[in-house]
Amino acid sequence: MKDYFSTTYRRMLALIAIAGIIFLSMCFFAFYFIGDQDKRIIAFLIIGFIITMGSYVFFYRKLIEKPLNLITNVLEKNDTSAIIQLQKSSKEFSYIGDLFLSSNQQKEELKQAKEKAEESELLKASFLTNLSHEIRTPMNAILGFSDLLNSQKLTDSEKIEYIDIIRRSGKNLVSIIDDLIEMSKIDTNQVTPNHVPFNLNAVLNDIKQTIDITIPKDKPLKVFLDEPKHPVVFQLISDETKLRQVIVNLINNAVKYTEHGTVNFGYKINPEDNALEFFVKDTGIGISEGEFTNIFSRFNRIQNDKTIKLSGLGLGLSISKAYIEMLGGKIWLESTENIGTTFSFTIPLKLDGLPVVEQMEKAINTVDKAKPLNILIAEDNDINFMLIKRVLSIRKYTVIRAKNGEEAVAVCREDNSIQLIIMDLKMPKMGGFEARKIIKTFKPYLPVIAHTAYSSTEINNEVFDAGFIDCITKPLDKTELFKVIDRIEHLTPNPVLV
């Protein structure tokens, strides 16, 4: 293009030169045939012509040729300095400079978007590969050891070992599925916080006991719950389930990446921001500073020689960050490689009017601790009922069955010995929500535990508004069920049968 403009410019100069020569020749030729007065006029014309042509050449070079050369540099070399000079040119060329600048910005944005999309695709591909591995690993254990259990030559100790492996593998598989479903629900804004008053200190103690059970006895690692200098003495209003999962996720990560040493967790009150600040501190392998920004990204896992043998999808921190932001807080970390990591996060400090020692005193007064509980199980599925019944038989509880909501309502009306109900939410004829609503009209303090196939993070306002005291999820966790029952018994200091 530059050659084209140069050639055009030379041609224009040649034409001007030819025209000028012809004009000047005619003027000089006329000098011999006209008078002195006319010669002066012709002289002025010649001078004017020369000045006009000189000005034309000067301004052409300045106002046309130079901007055209700048445009050529932009188009051929993408010269940013040429764009800046164009913007300083006359109005039309300045507008062209603005267009070039806008075009370059759009190109840069498209380039960044393309790089981000390519990076995302690589991460997704890596994630799917990792997902396949994570799912096949527990499935391999479940199927493999299930086949081995059919052998007649196994000792009792081997059978117990294989059953324990199958159980743990099943839990790992459920955890993977729960994370995937939860991430999908977060993306589609189907997860909302459920703010209820609860005893924060009791929740943290419960988490501590649960974590202690999960740590292998041969692992040289201790988990400590640090007592706050100024503990919360009133019930905290927040989403207990989501807060619990965030803390558990962070502690599980700390335990996973700490081969030996300690994991400390706890909280402190931040009066300036009117917030609670939680922390989970470990003495593990640490995280390099370059990973700080990516650590909360989904599909992202730290990959090095120390972590390659560890399992997991890398969704736990993404889910935790989403929950914390949902609750109105923020999360950050401090870490030094080979020394340890501290994850910290905040949530708003909102307290209920009742001290924690008085919580739930108005609730359930139906459990007689001197006798085994009489429990009504509202469950339409035979296998699910059989499983719950076998689990409850460990503690010698008396079990009565209702196959749908209508039967559950009828049994409660007729049998005053019922002290607790475990109710499936989805049953024929009448569902769990409707049945609980009716039972509440004539036995308002009878505790009812919801039993649902939804993950625990999906417990929403509807469950508690309907009057359920707690919720357990499928597949049934024996330990969790007993913890819920124990919690209900603990909250009933003055047992009175209704």
From TrEMBL:
Residues that span the membrane, as ranges: 12-35, 41-60
Domain Response regulatory: start-end pairs: 374-489
This enzyme's EC code(s): 2.7.13.3
4-aspartylphosphate: modified positions: 424
Keyword annotations: ATP-binding, Kinase, Membrane, Nucleotide-binding, Phosphoprotein, Transferase, Transmembrane, Transmembrane helix, Two-component regulatory system
Catalytic activity: ATP + protein L-histidine = ADP + protein N-phospho-L-histidine
Entry's Gene Ontology molecular function annotations: ATP binding; phosphorelay sensor kinase activity
Residue intervals of the Histidine kinase domain: 130-351
Keyword Nucleotide-binding recorded: yes
Enzyme class: transferase
InterPro entries: CheY-like_superfamily, HATPase_C_sf, HATPase_dom, His_kinase_dom, HisK_dim/P_dom, HisK_dim/P_sf, Sig_transdc_His_kin-like_C, Sig_transdc_resp-reg_receiver
PANTHER family referenced in this protein's UniProt entry, alphabetically: HYBRID SIGNAL TRANSDUCTION HISTIDINE KINASE J
Protein name: histidine kinase
Gene source species: Lacinutrix neustonica
Lineage of origin: Bacteria, Pseudomonadati, Bacteroidota, Flavobacteriia, Flavobacteriales
